[in-house]
Amino acid sequence: MENIKIMVIFGTRPEAIKMAPLIKELEKVPQIKCKVCVTAQHREILDQVLEIFNIKPEYDLNIMKTKQSLTGITCSVLSGLEEIFDKEKPDMVLVHGDTTTTFAAALAAFYRKIPVGHVEAGLRSHNKYSPYPEEINRKLTGALTDLHFAPTTISRENLLREGIDKNNIFVTGNTVIDAMKYTIKENYVFENHELNLIDFKNKKIIMVTAHRRENWGIGIENICKALKIIVEENLDVEVLYLVHPNPVVKDVVYSILKDVSRIHLLRPIDTREIHNLMKKCYLVMTDSGGIQEEAPHLGKPVLVLRDVTERVEALSAGTVRLVGIDIDKIVLEANKLIRNVEEYSNMSKSINPYGDGNGSVKIVDALIKYFNNVSI
């Protein structure tokens, strides 16, 4: 294998967390020259991850704008990458998951006839508008992809049903498990001082994140109302809500929960903080995709604040449970886990289906085999 130039492109914190360990593995291979380009679809919370993993991008499109639209993101990524691809001429572009950056970067690579590798390929909810726009971003990226790195056999089967050549699919596990080897520490002391004051030993701490586009409006309102009921009905419970800075989310959350006892509204925290918080908490409630993979690795049950999930492996394994955005259902399912030891034990002891923490190594091995068989 001659020297190969691989460009890794991502734009949000979840992508960065999952691509960081892969970048570290790529940098270990002398024949691979790894270039990193961030679009900064998210800015501040993306920069936190780059700092933690000591990743210094060669290119930064810095596209984030207040109340940016999906159309705006797509156009900015396409136009920004055009000049970079012309200059660098990478042998392959690696993208991750389901963001608008992912789809736009894959499309930009296709326009330059650059092969695409898709990390975390094959996840499907089979609902066009949920998660929105992520479900379609994944499918469109899959249509443009040359090498599909599927985290599980179910993801592989989804791709096969869509006509993808089995020789181009590699089951690797999810690289987020790799990332946690870098971030989880024993006796961790939080940089956010407020978290060090939380009584994790004697209180049942619920970590909450909820910000997805399809939950804007009534969804976020219902989640907040449910959290208020949960703490009122369970005196041993405290809630730590990591509130997304988007005003569409933040304004609603603060209007309902600002002065509620035992609910702490916190700014987003960096990856090390959130992973170690998950390790210490009792239960996680989220509409995030990645947390559905991360928390079960730490033995924490997850209530998913969505009606559907593309992480169906977790549902089958029993590590997560769909509760949607209905107030009564959220409260009911939370109370089961708070009050019923057997219910809690069954979820917390389920086996996480997302791999052994060697996903990045498997992806690099697949890339080396691919380029050994390709004339550059």
Detailed description of the structure:
This protein has helices at residues 13-26, 44-52, 70-88, 100-111, 134-144, 153-161, 175-183, 193-196, 218-233, 247-257, 271-280, 291-297, 312-317, 327-339, 341-348, 359-372, and strands spanning 4-10, 32-38, 59-60, 92-96, 116-119, 147-150, 169-171, 204-209, 237-242, 263-266, 283-286, 302-304, 320-322. Strand 9, helix 10 and strand 10 form a beta-alpha-beta unit. It is built from 16 helices and 13 strands. It is α/β, with parallel strands linked by helices. Helix 1 packs parallel to helix 2 and helix 4 (100-111) packs parallel to helix 5 (134-144). This is UDP-N-acetylglucosamine 2-epimerase (non-hydrolyzing). It is an enzyme of class 5 (isomerase). InterPro entries: UDP_GlcNAc_Epimerase_2_dom, WecB-like.
Compact summary:
This is UDP-N-acetylglucosamine 2-epimerase (non-hydrolyzing). With 376 residues, the chain is of the alpha/beta class.
Keywords:
15% strand; six-stranded parallel β-sheet; seven-stranded parallel β-sheet; 16 helices; alpha/beta; globular; 376 residues; single chain
Topology:
Layout: E1 4-10, H1 13-26, E2 32-38, H2 44-52, E3 59-60, H3 70-88, E4 92-96, H4 100-111, E5 116-119, H5 134-144, E6 147-150, H6 153-161, E7 169-171, H7 175-183, H8 193-196, E8 204-209, H9 218-233, E9 237-242, H10 247-257, E10 263-266, H11 271-280, E11 283-286, H12 291-297, E12 302-304, H13 312-317, E13 320-322, H14 327-339, H15 341-348, H16 359-372
